[in-house]
Write a structure and sequence with these properties.
This protein has 430 residues and is mostly beta strands. It has two domains: 3-26 and 164-425, 6 Propeller (Neuraminidase); 39-156, TolB, N-terminal domain (Rossmann fold, 3-Layer(aba) Sandwich). 11% of the residues lie in helices and 43% in strands. Helix 2 crosses helix 4 (140-156). It is globular, with a radius of gyration of 23 Å. The two termini are 45 Å apart. InterPro entries: 6-blade_b-propeller_TolB-like, Tol-Pal_TolB, TolB_N, WD40.
Amino acid sequence: MSLMTKIGLRTLVASCLIAVGGAANAQLNVLVTGVGSTQFPIATATFAGEANSPQQVAAIVRADLARSGKFTNVDAGSAPVSETDSVDLGGWKAKGANAFVAGSVNKLPNGQYEVRFKLYDTVKGESLGGLVLQSPPAGLRMSAHKVADYIYQKLMGDRGVFATRLSYVIRTGGRYQLQISDSDGQDAHIALSSPEPIISPAWSPDGTKVAYVSFEKKKPIVYVHDLPTGRRVIISDQKGNNSAPAWSPDGRTLAVALSRTGNTQIFAVNADGSGLRRLTQGTTIDTEPTFSPDGRSIYFTSDRGGQPQIYRMSAQGESAGAAQRVTFTGSYNTSPRVSPDGKQLAYISRTGGGFKLYIQDLQSGVATALTDTTHDESPSFAANGQYILYATQVNGRGVLAAVSTDGRTRQILSVQGGSVREPSWGPFMQ
């Protein structure tokens, strides 16, 4: 058995053999284990009217900002403060808050909820604007995430990812569940439940679909699952293994790894399952494709040099030119993922007998370990490129973890009484 075959089986076996005692909690629990070197002090007051709403919006905003690792929450007390109230910005500055947030939550006659807020710079003594958001009761958590995104962008200068979603696989009661949740692991729901393994979920660029591999027909088959409707389409059911789906940036094409010709090779297929075409032409194993953000290149794992390494080829395939090796640090590198700006590569490297998450500058080639764990797998960049979600183990149990690309901010997302694998971080929502 080749090393590349073992790599594929390692991921599969991890998914197949997760033993879970009892029912797993559907929600992920978040533990922040590291923060940035400097944190921005901010006070978020209780929103007026939120005591009568289904969600405590201000508490969700505070939790979002805290888990980013870039903010520290200054105690704002329990008294609600509306966006229309007069605010003593100097007083909040004296309490150590460089920014202050006030807002309100109101139920509208049509049953929807309206969230209004204002963000203030207490140092400059000025308003930084705000938003008016409307949603059904079930959408209030997402409205809170959008408030946090606005704050993050105004104060950090980069787009926030609190209003994005996660997908991951939990095994509970002998069944595998593909779950979709908010970025904080809450508001989780089951997209697919099966007695057979589900692996390799991948978000479409517009965030409405997830491609994945399901073994429900006793063999690996690639599906595309439309989340709003629940409708599924088989994308690849070729002879042998069908695995590792990856979307092109325009959402029209998926790259997949198929063994229909013998050794696993990379193919492209249209998003409706038509137009299958082979991209790699090797006699060894090529797998785990992922597109560059501009759609012009595909990165993938290959053992063509004797050991698994990461290569890059044209999205048109090797007929347009031979693939070029990308990773040179370490002798065993797999699971490539390219940052949204195309400047960095996340991957898993076998180091000292364990598997660690690495990040590589694609211009300089410099690679850096981001973790000190030894069972890392399945990296996935946040849509803003500042964090990487991955699966690992803590005390022998599978968890999800997220780390900032500078390695300073860390968080663990775990399921009470169970294990979780196969994470994928969704795109910015439209």
